[in-house]
Amino acid sequence: MNPKMPAKAQPVPAYLSAEWPPFEQNLVAVLAQLEEDQYLILSVKRSDRFVQFAGQGSFGMRAETTSNSYLPKSELLNGEQIEALQASGWLSPTGAPVEAIPERDPDGSPNFFRDFPQPVPYAAIARLTVSTFAEILRVPHPGFLEYEAFDDNGPLLFPSLGVKVRERKKVIETADSTRQRLLTVLREVTNLPDLEYDKDGDIAIRFGSALVYARVTEDPLLVRLYAPILSGIEVGEALLTRLNDINAHLDFTRFVYRNGAIFGLVDAPAIPFVADHVAQAFRQLCTVADGIDDLLQAEFGGQTAFLEPVTNAYKH
To answer: Where does the record place the TY-Chap N-terminal domain (predicted)?
Structure first.
């Protein structure tokens, strides 16, 4: 069978809506249109339950459906539903959100997930999706679903799906709201529910030998993450060349020399505030800062960051 041709949908049980098979056929056609680095998320209206798809080009397609890690208490999956997801072919989450991240677990996920290699079996993915919504999550009709789709260039529209586009409420960011969102993200990432700002407006978190700070700047409105690496060193061509070489190989973190010290620094935009981006930048700064201080000290001398005892220790 040509995987890009819509296949005839399988009949659904009598107690389910007759609209599911046509929706399934529509989904087959839409999934076949997803290109590399394009994403489609089908979610239940006014709910955190979803099934999402990521086009991965020559590597095929990944599909995920939400685990209890992302569901409020009122929507938690029960044991019967979890067993049904596993029986239908979904792989169980490989760790908590702070553990099953690409940097630590590139082949896993904090959600239930499946990877489909080329040629992508679009009909089988659509059948699994409909079964998940209709038979396991007990969504009575595809009209209870909405979708969003996007790539790096912005939103994508698939009217042939026949369901409503999800409209997110516009959030007006202020310094105070950004501080609260930053605190929430870092509490989740570090699994430190008691994390708080200090009197200087910083959140201080120890990661190995590094001490990483997070704060919100107001003009412009940014999330700033920084870590003191070395102090008491003199600037020279060799040092600046080394820092430039390090910076060239990093996506977020930059190392700068200022007033006799080296700092690791990340500035993340707060408009819009994207929690995943902030979390990823924080993880990278922690990991890099923890490993590079001793390396640079061996090359250029100086003192590593003096770590006073801190309550907030991000375990790894």
So the answer is: 19-145
What b/e sequence results for 270-289 when a residue is b if at least 16 CB atoms lie within 10 Å of its CB, and e otherwise?
Answer: beebeeeebbbbbbbbbbbb
> How, if at all, do strands 145-151 and 164-165 pair?
parallel
**Alpha-carbon torsion 194, 281, 63, 316, what sign?**
negative
The residue to which tokens 């080394």 are assigned: 242
Task: Specify burial of residue 262 (Cβ count, 10 A radius: 0-12, 13-18, 19+).
Answer: buried
- C-alpha dihedral (280, 94, 289, 197), degrees to nearest 10: 60
Q: Which two tokens stand for residue 300?
A: 């250029």
CA 58 to chain centre: 22
Which phi and psi angles does 254 have, rounded to 5°?
-125, 140
Which of helix, strand or coil describes residue 169? coil
- Reduced to 3 states, what is the DSSP secondary structure of residue 59? helix
Q: Is 145 left (phi over 0), alpha (psi -120 to 50) or beta?
A: beta
The token pair that represents 145 in the structure block: 């679903």
In one letter, which amino acid is 20? W
Strand bridging mode 254-258 / 203-207: unpaired
Contact 130, 31 (CB under 8 A): no
Name the pTM for this structure: 0.56
Residue 250 near residue 284 (C-beta atoms within 8 A): yes
Distance CA 134, CA 309 (A): 52
Give me the amino acid identity at 70.
Y
- Residue 257's DSSP bridge partners are 262
Residue 7: pLDDT band (50, 70, 90) is: very low
Residue 164 host element (H or E): strand 164-165
